[in-house]
């Protein structure tokens, strides 16, 4: 079942006389429960696509169907509700609230949710059962990213969007984070969209969308995705 | 063009971060404006006054001589090296009335000076004629005087006004101001009601004094100095020392002058006296001579009188003899007359006899003749009877014939015939009787004839005898007549003598009378002479005494002159001018406020800009790292931020200093001008001192802050800098250790709490900023409260009478009683009370002050008129005999407390010592209250009323107007004042001060606004990523706002609480330093003011948060999350 459908999505920035086409007509779909990778070089427009998909940004034109609704037509408030109820975000720099402990950072997201999961349980699931009351500064990068993922998961979203989740992490830690994401997709049946510039991890995804100069250059569907552990890069 | 890129970067940074740049600019501008503006006000006040003094050539020193000041003194002063100019003038305090009006005022009349103490003429022109004057602008306005009005002056003392002034009516030609009177206060005087209401300037020639009363002096170099400064005081003191040096000698010289004048005067008096004495002596001797002459004359006329008296007596003697002779002659005549008379009477007897015999004879003759006649008549009758008889007989015969005839007749009737016969018979019988009677008659007649003849013979012999007697009588009668003639002759001679005698007698009487009057005249002359003599003796005695007295007087005067002591000078500087000092105190007070008030303000502003700069440097961490990595030196990198900060601060300071120093002092001094009406144009020069001080501090703070932050950043390695700053560690806060509270907080509150306490700097900045603004506003409102408390309390709670009627100077008991009666009867006046109210000097230790000395004549229910009460406890105080009650402020000026002893000195009279029994709440003027019993004990006499206090019902201004003039129409009333007028004046003054308060409140509000804006701005930009994150997490805009506002609300509340604390302290400080001597400000801030300042602060916070909302909304999630920059 198709969860996401982008149709001819364009994002054009105009400052003065310079027109920048960040996204220049993108079409793709993602099935429910899929682990999708959006891969491209820096500046290819992949983050813009993710931001549009996550309701953080709006497309200049085109349609973005999520679970059958065209969110491109929504106003800021509807988008906020969309982010709140349907989306879980994982950032490259974690973006935890430094003043809150791990469990509090999760709780922060739960405050506003309709049917959240238990914060501590989610944290235990991501392997931070013993770091619940630590402040972000007291956690390593990987641990912080786990908190970030836990925060996204605890909202129990329809869609988990990750922007270069391993970008700031070392290889091993990055691998374990990817594993966590993959497990989340497989075990919980969540649709996960990950942005990366790392082509090497393409085999672990169900669907790989390659973007070049604001356009989709190739969409590959992996019938048998490989577990992360088996992928080396 | 080295490092061109760096400069470009700076300019671009400024352009990009314009809000931040502007916020630093404005907060610095605001801080500097307020700081330098308020600080400079003190100096500007002094400069304004100094300019006024310089422009009007206001004297630096003034010399008053107890013996007056002569031209010689003036020249000596002019010759002093430290004196630039000296000018003598005259002044005198007088009582003044506008022509046609009742009100009396004490007025200082001054002569116009040529060069010093120039009057600023605001209307009309300076007086030029002897009957013209210029009137005090303030006084003119208070009493609606205008040019052309006439003022009538009187001396107010026993002395004549003409001793000092030539005229007593002056026409107003101009209205003006004097630098000697900056404020509305005009000082005190020993006449009238004791307080001077204004001044008059008249030309010098209007004075009749021959020596100056004062000399104005311009001290050398003093003009260059700013008034009220120490260097000015020192400069003037040098000249003063010189004056002190010559004082002794000049006073001696002045004494000599006076003595010379006096001796001259005495000599001329003595001369006059001698002249007069000689004149008097001459007059006396003349009088004596006149008296002697008179005496001689009296003696002479007495002698004449005596001789005339003798003559008169001789004449009288002669007259007396004459009378004797006359009388004897008269006797002789009368005896002769007696003889003649007896002879005559004998003769008359004889004659009578003869006469009677004669008449007998005649009788007899007559009888005879009658008898003859009778006889004849009888004869005649007989004849007639015979005739009748014959006739009858004839008739009878006829009848017989007729009978006979008738008998013959045939027809004759018997009857008739009978009848006829009968008649005939009767007739015949009758005729026969008649014949018989006739014959008897004839016989009788014949006998009578015979008798008559015999009588005739007898009668003839008697006649013969009678003739013989008659001849005899005639002879003796002749004899008698002869002697009678002789006597008649003698009688005539006697009558002649008698007449002569009588004439002599009259003459003698006249002479006697003349003599009598002459004698009386002489007596009168003698009495006159005696009187004259006595008078002469008396006046001689008197004259002698007079001479002695005069001689003694001359001697006394001579002694007095030689005993005369030399006078002294009072050398006064400007500090002895009340308004000069008061104004200086005002300036000092503003200075005091200026030291604390703007300092807090400035501190807040400096801290805010410091935070902003710190934030900026921290934000640009990565860029710093990049620059460093590129190889720029630390100095260059720091320079960017320093230049940025300096640009904002320097321009901000410059604008702030100019605006602040121009606007704030102007506003404040203009407000003061409402009270110091004598001040000229407000001077607000830019003062480098305060500009530099304020800018220096501002720039210093910002530069230091920037440098220290840069230093901190620059110490790190470029690589570290390129990486995002390690987020500030989350920490557990104290509150978490109190699970009781912590557990009860919702998650979001926990987060808020942690956030709040995590950024301690921001936390304190916020509290200090909000608290500071709140405190400033509170002080602003509190100042207003304190000032309005004066009139609220003073005129409604403490002074409870409504009218004070001043008794006219010299009004008697009767007039006073009538006035009281009249007042008691007047409608709307509910009660009256007599009070003694005078101005006295109080002294305690070394402190002195002047105060109103109030003694009610009756203590009963005095609190209906003035409420004496303790300010703190509100307890009523009673006047007793143990001591006086002092006004609170008066006591603090004197440094006296209950139980202490103070000295009361009234006018030139002696002083009394008295104990202070209690202090009473009082806000205006110094006051001292005493019970009448204590007064009597101390002064030995009962207090005499000077004023009558009246309480009224609620009355209108119209009623007061008419009542005022009605009261003044009463004989005993000299002045009338309404408490409502004072209250109005006070309220007007409060309204003026409101300007200062508004300045404070507006500035504080601005500060609050800017501080809140800045801090919120910092807060948001600091937590941009965090806020973007929660936005991404799906927080609605409002929820994002709440996330921030929650902290702001708490900080605002904490700030307000801190502000109230700071405000109360600051208010107390400002009140105590800003108070003038005559006024006590209210000590407390009203509840409303707390409410207002709190509401304003909250209002600003709400406004800021509202603005923040849009800023929050504008946060771009994508941009914010892209990098940590």
Question: Could you please describe the fold and organization of this structure?
Answer:
Chain A: This is ABC transporter ATP-binding protein. The complex is a heterodimer of chains A (233) and B (1125). Chain A has a single domain (2-230), classed as Rossmann fold (3-Layer(aba) Sandwich), CATH 3.40.50.300. Helices cover 29% and strands 30% of the residues of chain A. Chain A has 6 helices and 10 strands, in the order βββαββαβαααβαβββ. Chain A has a 6-stranded mixed sheet. Chain A has a 4-stranded antiparallel sheet with strand order 2-1-4-5, covered by helices on one side. In chain A, a hairpin with a 2-residue loop joins β1 (2-15) and β2 (18-31). In chain A, α3 runs parallel beside α5 and α4 crosses α5. Chain B is of the alpha+beta class and 1125 residues long. In chain B, α2 (18-55) runs antiparallel to α10. The chains are: A alpha/beta (233), B alpha+beta (1125). At the A-B interface, α2 and α3 of A face α13, α20 and α23 of B.
Task: List key phrases describing it.
heterodimer; A: 233 residues; alpha/beta; Rossmann fold; 6 helices; 29% helix; globular; B: 1125 residues; alpha+beta; six-stranded mixed barrel; six-stranded mixed beta barrel; 23 helices; 66% helix; 12% strand; elongated
**Average residue-wise pLDDT of chain B:** 84
Poorly predicted segments of chain B: none
**DSSP helix count of chain B?**
23
* Major pleated sheet of chain A: 6 strands, mixed
Radius of gyration of chain B: 72 Å
H-E order of chain A: EEEHEEHEHHHEHEEE
**What is the count of β-strands of chain B?**
20
| Number of structural domains of chain A | 1
Helix proportion of residues of chain A, in percent?
A: 25-40%
Cα-based radius of gyration of chain A, to the nearest Å: 17 Å
The tally of beta strands of chain A, per DSSP, is 10
Q: What is the count of DSSP helices of chain A, taking H or I runs of 4+ residues?
A: 6
Structural class of chain B comes to alpha+beta
Question: Strand order of the main beta sheet of chain B, please?
Answer: 3-4-9-6-8-7
Structural class of chain A: alpha/beta
Most extensive interface, chain pair and sizes: A-B, 35 and 32 residues
Main sheet properties of chain B: 6 strands, mixed, barrel
